[in-house]
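Section 5.1 Outputs to date
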Amino acid sequence: GWVNSGTGRISRGRIRKDTLQLHSTSTHKKVVPNFEEFLKPGVEVIHEVINPGLLAPLSNLMQDSPSFRLYSIDMLASCEYLPQELGECVSESCEVYPIDEEEVPENIIGIDQSEWRFDLDGWARWDMPSEDYYDTQDFPESYTSYDGKEVWDFIHAKIEFPSNTATPDSWRLDYNKAVRGLHSSISGHILRSIKEKMENGEDDVSSLRWENEVERRIYSQPGAIENLYFLYMLLLSAVREARVRLIEDCENGSIDKETSQRLKALLEEQFWRGHCDTIDLAANQMRSHGTGEDDTFWKARNRTREFMRIMNCVQCNVCKLHGKIAVLGMSTALQILLGKEGEGVDNERIDKLKRVELAALLTTTGKVAKAVEFVNKEFVAK
């Protein structure tokens, strides 16, 4: 499946209670993830320390702050990778509309326009900013009827590294884990939305069976849960590395005052400093696997740029909105952690990161954190 996001703003009927019994969301099996041994301390810290302190305040901040809600995106960009008919998602829940220009804070417009630049060999190539800004809270990530299987099949077959060309200790497989972890995060949000809709008796999920959706979106995807945690650890490491820059933005007026106070308090929490070695387990593995290889990470940068561009083939605009932000968040994390050749990015280069890159990093971290909590609660056997 794909991003399957929607606004929930169209009218919905109710299905009969006797029909609703066919769609119980409590009858699926649970599994024991097969985490690599070295990652298990990180998984434990996530649930015992990180998410209890991070999830609620970060989620609330992402919902409240224009700095992390507003993105200028080219929604009309052409698909260059797949032959497609003009069969866009027919559901109204697929549509997005830009907010009024006067609702966008002037400092956000000014910063985005001044920071945009073309980078031939960058980790991502974000759309050139325009007057069209979209609010992720107006069009939140949830379920629509759109099926993006064709796009995801392309990503797994063409954007990821072929598994038969990589050894088990290759950074190429680590890269694939990050891409698949993003897919798992998106699937987690879809399933959360389906569950809510089923429990509310909404018509647009009346033809779905919960256990079938869980099977195809999580259990049938090899390593889906394990890859989700791997990506989350990469994102947490990147946010920790960017803390100084983010705190400086809070203090120099780049971020509005109310957001700055809340974000600075969150970034100064003890868990960012007290669990560095554990948080960095995934990032350290990826770096160590890339050390000494002749071609190292330029191929990953190229693939990540293409990962961004394949989002233009998504024919649900809400899905495209959230998909592009998520890919930018992942690519920003890789840029911070790996730099050009695995050395990471020093403070001077972190200072050159764009506002939209840091916003996407935090937004994606918040989304993946919520997906981890949902997947752990619903699908992991205790």
